[in-house]
Design goal:
Elements lengths: L1 H31 L5 E2 L5 H16 L3 H12 L3 E4 L8 E6 L3 E7 H5 L12 H23 L5 H19 L5 H27 L3
Parallel strand pairs: 2-4
Antiparallel strand pairs: 1-2, 3-4
Length: 205
């Protein structure tokens, strides 16, 4: 009986220590994402609704595989909202102490993204389409890291490939001005991805 009690006590100590370490890992991960982070869900209704709108748009674009993967990431509790994500990053993957792996997305990128290229001569719907494509591509990028791909250049290759695949699908359906605007959005996303890939490569030389 005494040996059993000692075993139970030892297991309790191990469990307590483990959860304490996990908590430290969670705090570290949140800190790397700027702090004040919260899991995407009922506590973030505006971000949650915006995320659902993004998933619906991906399905309309026949990108159901990406929509499903992002939905699974959220359902697993590993997609978080980061209201203070530093710099110009839209999202970031963080792995902490080998215990916590999460993708953080900047809240404003979901809820009220700033539309780029105000002087490009394209109307707001075209620029909004670009913002949606760019956010989806960024989440695709971070999802690759979450799934185990570490090489940054290879991850950008997959992101760019996703943009081009989306363009190939959608440009067959569109005509006239709508097609021209979507093509501009895809080309802009590809150019941005190529520039980011080159910057990442230069940092490893």
């Amino acid at each position: 009986m005494k040996a059993l009690k000692q075993l139970v006590l030892a297991l309790a100590i191990v469990a307590t220590t483990y959860y304490a370490i996990v908590r430290v890992a969670e705090e570290k991960a949140g800190g790397l994402a700027g702090g004040d982070t919260v899991r995407l869900g009922s506590q973030t209704p505006a971000a949650r609704d915006a995320f659902e709108a993004l998933l619906n748009q991906l399905r309309i674009w026949d990108e159901a595989a990406l929509a499903h993967a992002l939905e699974q990431l959220r359902d697993d509790g590993d997609l978080w909202v980061a209201p203070q994500l530093a710099g110009e990053r839209s999202a970031i993957y963080v792995s902490s102490l080998g215990l916590v792996s999460r993708v953080y997305v900047r809240r404003e990128e979901l809820v009220s993204p700033e539309l780029p290229f105000p002087d490009a001569g394209f109307p707001e719907p075209a620029r909004r389409t670009f913002a949606t494509i760019r956010l989806a591509g960024t989440l695709h990028h971070e999802l690759q890291h979450y799934e185990g791909l570490e090489d940054e250049s290879a991850t950008y290759d997959r992101e760019i490939q996703w943009y081009r695949g989306l363009g190939a699908t959608m440009l067959e359906r569109l005509w006239g001005e709508e097609r021209r605007q979507f093509e501009w959005a895809i080309d802009s996303a590809v150019q941005g991805g190529e520039a980011a890939r080159e910057m990442a490569a230069s940092m490893t030389r």
